[in-house]
Amino acid sequence: MNKSTNRQALKDFIRPNRYELKEYVIQDGQKHPFAILCPGGGYDIICSFNEGIPFAEKLNEMGYSAFVLYYHCKKKARFPAPQDDLARTVSEIIARSDELNLDTNSYSIWGASAGGHLAATFGTDTMGYKKYQLPKPSVLILSYPVVSMSDLTHKRTRKNLIGDTPEQELIDLTSVEKQVTDQYPPTFIWCGDSDKTVSPENSKMLASALNDQGVPNRIMVYPGIDHGVGLGTGTACESWFMNAIQFWQEHMQ
Predict the structure, then answer these.
(1) Residues pairing with 21 in the sheet
(2) According to DSSP H, which parts of 96-154 are helical?
(3) pTM attached to this predicted model
(4) pLDDT score of 99
């Protein structure tokens, strides 16, 4: 990491555990589609230095406004607190859409790792846009996401979200692969086949559930790629970002 990234990483580790939204809004008098970014961190911290700010800046370069969501973590991350935070973000942004010159018909939710779980829950009837009576996203973009709270979960993510000894009903509710319906948004998923933190089977089981429900999706599994690579610049997975943008454009209203 360079010095700027190191400084931001330190800020991420010491920042207060509270809801916050960082805006990367293009103000040129034109309406722009927008992305809400949910960085990872195991529902323990918010890694905006890796999966928030760099994504937002690249989206701005391509003509998209972006928002980095700092959702509640650690003991404040008990379900459904992060889901409430994401719903609050969508609601507040839409309410300000004229002020911020946003195209609310073409918004996307992005999430990485545990933030990928948060973003993925927003597509469900039980935890997402329908529950909160919010507009359906054009697409979800999920980077090496945690999907399940069952055997293949990431243990710290699960512990922070639903505790040490959750009831089976809560495990099932928060396992996204068990909550997919035909109303789930089109979804782009990518991960590395060498991910030693979050099993790639998470991505594969979500893609399978989407296929079962006839939901448009694309999954890319990159060889030799481990967890947490962010944009993946200079690696075998660096094409994922442009592929995700293309997928979003294909499903814009």
Answers:
(1) 69
(2) 97-100, 114-121
(3) 0.97
(4) 96
Strand pairing category for 65-70 and 20-24? antiparallel
Residues whose CB is less than 8 angstroms from the CB of residue 42 and which lie 6 or more positions away in sequence, other chains included: 113, 114, 154, 156, 157, 160
CATH numeric code, 3-250: 3.40.50.1820
Q: 36 is written with which tokens?
A: 């809400």
Q: Where are the alpha helices (DSSP H) in the chain?
A: 3-14, 48-51, 53-61, 81-95, 97-100, 114-121, 155-162, 168-174, 201-212, 240-250
Query: Of the candidates 49, 46, 44, which has an alpha carbon nearest to the alpha carbon of residue 69?
Result: 46
Sole residue written with tokens 């089109």:
186
Q: What is the mean pLDDT of the chain?
A: 97
Q: What's the Rg (C-alpha) of the chain? A: 17
Residue 121 CA, chain-centre distance (Å), reads: 9
188-237 pLDDT, tens digit each: 999 999 999 999 999 999 999 999 999 999 999 999 999 999 999 999 99
Going by the DSSP 8-state scheme, the letter that residue 133 receives in this structure is T
Q: Using CA atoms in the order 71, 72, 73, 76, what is the torsion angle rounded to 10 degrees? A: -160
